Amino acid sequence: MLPWGFKSGYVFDEHKYMWLTYFASRIGSFTCIKWIKRRSQKFDNALRRIIKSLKF
Question: Where does the source fall among the domains of life (predicted)?
Answer without folding.
Answer: Bacteria
